[in-house]
Every structure is written in structure tokens, then in C-alpha cells.
UniProtKB/TrEMBL annotation:
SUPFAM superfamilies reported for this sequence: S-adenosyl-L-methionine-dependent methyltransferases (SSF53335)
Any one Pfam family match given in the protein's UniProt record, by short name: Methyltransf_23
Cited InterPro entries: SAM-dependent_MTases_sf (IPR029063)
Xref: Gene3D superfamilies: Vaccinia Virus protein VP39
Name of the protein described by the UniProt record: Methyltransferase domain-containing protein
Superkingdom to which the source organism belongs: Bacteria
Protein species of origin: Capillimicrobium parvum
Length: 228
């Protein structure tokens, strides 16, 4: 399948418990994620009429509900390289939101075209990538106006690539990246690509440390606004 991640190496297709949670979120039946609420509260008011938004690494597509709930209805697109999650968004979010299923696209961030969306949202994605630089460069070039990111950012690069004991039985050999990236370097790349960058305090963690699958993550939110 073009643009799809290898299922034998992709944790998102091999974690039934998380998948069930994503299904409930897609149906808007689960408790709202604090970070999704914050994404909508920060980015929503900046989005002009008729502007598009790409939710990059959208999972089951549920962030749309956080924007809708707050009255923000940009032209919504989702992208994810896990077929099961794109199918979930197409089946559960699209019809409830009155959108064509094609608004949720199977594909890789790495294949995004330059200047393709007004706004880009990317939450909790690059931390689980081998490295942030190549996909972030693509996201920055895809964003015509602004980008909102949430990733684990610290003082220095920490690469963790470990089996995940919380995956389904028989899949726990799959290794997952849980990286922390140097905040200054990430901000430097955003600035070099033409964005003014604002740090925004992460409400879920208070800019502290959160353990995710027993690994410390330092979730930080960055807003990038393209200089005119
Ligand atoms: C931890 S989940 C986060 C999902 C959602 N953004 C959220 O915060 O709930 C990471 C998602 O990013 C997707 N993903 C990771 N790398 C990607 C890439 N290079 N291109 C497209 N999707 C990617 C995965 O398939 C997965 O659905």
C-alpha cells in the first residue's frame, strides 16, 4: 500500500487497547484529551475563514471534535500512515462530521507537497519517529501560514528505540522510538524555515515530565507563525 507504514514495524496497528480508545475518541465518546483541547484553544482562534488545516499523524482523527466543540470549523484534512487508523477516521469521524471519507488520507508526512495547507497541526508524532528533522522540514514547508507542534523536547537529543511491553501479545518485539529532541535545535529549524516561534506551556504536564510506556517524555508545545 503506497504511503503505508510496514505493519510488522508499526506499533499503532498492533495495540488493541489503544486502538479501542482511538475508536471511542473518534466517536467522540471518550474523555477529551487535554492536549487536543489545547490544540483547538490555541490554533482555532488564529485560523481565518476558509483556511485549511492538516492534522499530520492524525491517528483516528478525533482532534476535529475539539475544534468543532469550540466553534472552529476549518477545512479539515487528516493524514496518517497507519491504514487501520485512517479507516477508523473515515468510518467514524467523517460521516459524523459530514465530511467526505477522503478528507482522511493514507500517506506519509515525508511525501507532503510544499505550501499545501494553511495550517498544520502535529501532536505526539515526531517523538516516535527515527528523527524529527526530515519530517519536520516537510511539515514546515507544507504550512503556508502556521504550525502547531507537540513533541518531547529537552536540552539534548535522547534516542530511545525499545520493545513496547504494552503492545498486543506476539507483537511486543516491535521496537518503538521514544525520542526527546533538543528544543533549541527544533526552534532553530523552524526559524530558519521562516517561522516566528512561540513556546506555549503544555497544560497536561505543566511543562514537566510524563512517563509514557515507562520512558520520560517532556511534552512541549511550539507555535510557528510564518513571517510575511
Ligand atoms: C502517538 S500517535 C498520535 C496520534 C494523534 N496525533 C494524537 O495525538 O492522539 C502517532 C501517529 O502518527 C502516525 N505517524 C507516525 N509517523 C508518521 C509519518 N511519518 N507519516 C504519517 N503518519 C505518521 C502514526 O501512524 C500514529 O497514528
Amino acid at each position: 500500500m503506497p504511503g503505508a507504514a510496514n505493519p510488522d514495524a508499526n506499533p499503532w496497528a498492533n495495540d488493541r487497547a489503544t486502538f479501542d480508545l482511538y475508536r471511542r475518541r473518534a466517536r467522540d465518546e471518550a474523555e477529551e484529551m487535554t492536549c487536543a483541547a489545547q490544540a483547538a484553544a490555541v490554533l482555532g482562534p488564529l485560523i481565518g475563514p476558509g483556511e485549511s488545516l492538516l492534522d499530520a499523524g492524525c491517528g483516528g482523527g478525533s482532534y476535529l471534535w475539539s475544534f468543532r466543540r469550540r466553534g472552529f470549523i476549518p477545512e479539515w484534512w487528516g493524514l496518517d500512515h497507519t491504514p487501520e487508523l485512517v479507516d477508523l477516521a473515515r468510518a467514524e469521524v467523517a460521516p459524523r462530521a459530514g465530511l467526505a471519507p477522503e478528507r482522511f488520507m493514507l500517506g506519509a508526512i515525508e511525501d507532503l507537497a510544499e505550501g499545501s495547507y494553511d495550517n498544520v497541526l502535529c501532536f505526539n508524532v515526531l517523538t516516535n519517529s527515527p528523527h524529527y528533522a526530515a519530517p519536520l522540514e516537510r511539515l514546515l514547508r507544507a504550512a503556508r501560514k502556521r504550525i502547531l507542534l507537540r513533541e518531547s523536547l529537552g536540552d539534548e537529543l535522547v534516542v530511545r528505540f525499545t520493545p513496547d511491553p504494552y503492545l498486543d501479545e506476539g507483537k511486543r518485539h516491535i521496537r518503538v522510538y521514544h525520542n526527546t529532541y533538543p528544543a533549541d535545535e527544533v526552534i532553530g529549524l523552524m526559524e530558519a524555515e521562516g517561522f516566528a516561534v512561540t513556546r506555549i506551556r503544555d497544560e497536561r504536564t505543566g511543562d514537566g515530565t510524563e512517563m509514557v510506556v515507562d520512558i520520560p517524555h517532556q511534552w512541549r508545545i511550539l507555535l510557528g507563525e510564518r513571517r510575511s
